[in-house]
Amino acid sequence: MFDIRNSGLILAALAAGSLALAGAASAQSVYDDRNAHTLLISPEGDILDYVPEVGEVVISRDRMGRTILIDRMGNLVATEIPAESYYPPRDRGRNGSLPGVYDPYQRQDPYPQRGWDDDVTTASIPDALPGDQAPLDQMPQDMPYGGPDLPLPADNAPARTVTPEIPVKSDLSRLEITALQVFLDREGISPGVIDGKMGQNVNKAIVAWEQMTGETLDPNNAEDILERLRLSGGLAIKNYTITAGDAAGPFVASIPDDYAHKAQLPALSYTSTVEMLAERFHMDEGYLRELNPGVDFSIPGTTIKVVEPGPVKKGNVARIVANKGLKQVFAYGEDGSLIAAYPASIGSADTPSPSGTVTIERIALDPGYTYNPKVNFQQGNNTKVLQIPPGPNGPVGTVWLALSKPTYGIHGTPEPSKIGRTQSHGCIRLTNWDATELAKMVKAGVTVEFVE
């Protein structure tokens, strides 16, 4: 650790990266940040938009050995990263130009709008509402950036071995864990909701990714994770401006628990803009609010911070394996290679999932739900058949893949943050976005094998 006042150095921010100045005088130069070798990034993921005054900050190192700025209260001000990590290759044209510079060779947007093919149908499905009585996994709290006096990690420190059953106690910061989750999500190996926390879903995703690629991913090697993230499409967090359409909805005031009351609603829509946006960007709703403190998400034109999960995974899935013990679904191609993996809630002791192999019979988008107590279960005091309207907050979410065993299916959920941490009434429950992605890669006749 050393003090800026004694070093005669000052790190320029928004438009500079790192800058050495002779003497201890405060100064600021106007730089083109896109030509800088390094940049200072705030804890929120932005380029630092001011030059710290001499004496306001100290220069130190975090646990990963990176240069950081810390104020006199011990708060992280900025972290120095390579400039190319902030401006990924997909933002450059054929001649290396960056956004805002005309480039006749600029390629088309690699992330087209997501849509559905015309052969996906809707239907009304009898099914059971997944139970949510089981507690959430206990996840470790965020590991903050190291302070000025924390020692640097040893160069020969062994990499952690990751297994699905043993949670990793990560040395990464909250934003670095977010980067890990976003990278896995982009690879088609879903960590569930992106919330900046380590847990079983992230563990399982790391192991599945290693099985898919044959590579090793150290969940504590921030430099490696950030480089992989850069190559997969750039920074994990981006700015997004709320549109009039986002704010318009349609929304419902609340979602009742009683099925009879659900049946009276025109649709089981989102309850707010923030809930809708959290699902769109694969985020935990609480984490989206944390990244945007004090923001009113209902106002069009408001710029917020969201994660960038990237494009949907594509491929032709020939076989699905639902692992009950791992609470994870694996999708394989015709050649036997792993295409995607998703955390899942699969059955319970009272209402177990099927055993053996079944097949997908049909695919439904935005399905309604037929509640029949004689076929499904007893919900409250409801003894009659009820037609529950469709919507993301419906009992089966936005997708239904009907299985050849009656009343069983693979479907979405109104509570994505509980996926993989609670049990269902026998079906395979995924987040709405994971169920949608999987539905795009399957067709009727694909086998689903249940294993312990």
TrEMBL record:
Q: Where is this region: Disordered?
A: 85-137
Of which family is this protein a member?
Belongs to the YkuD family.
Q: Pathway involvement? A: Cell wall biogenesis; peptidoglycan biosynthesis
Q: Which organism is it from?
A: Rhizobium rosettiformans
Q: Which residues form the signal peptide?
A: 1-27
- Alphabetical list of Pfam families matching this protein: YkuD (PF03734)
Which residues constitute the catalytic centre? 411 (proton donor/acceptor), 427 (nucleophile)
Q: What protein name is recorded for this chain?
A: Lipoprotein-anchoring transpeptidase ErfK/SrfK
- Superkingdom of the source species: Bacteria
Keywords of the record, alphabetical order, are: Cell shape, Cell wall biogenesis/degradation, Lipoprotein, Peptidoglycan synthesis, Signal, Transferase
What is one process in the GO biological process aspect for this record?
regulation of cell shape
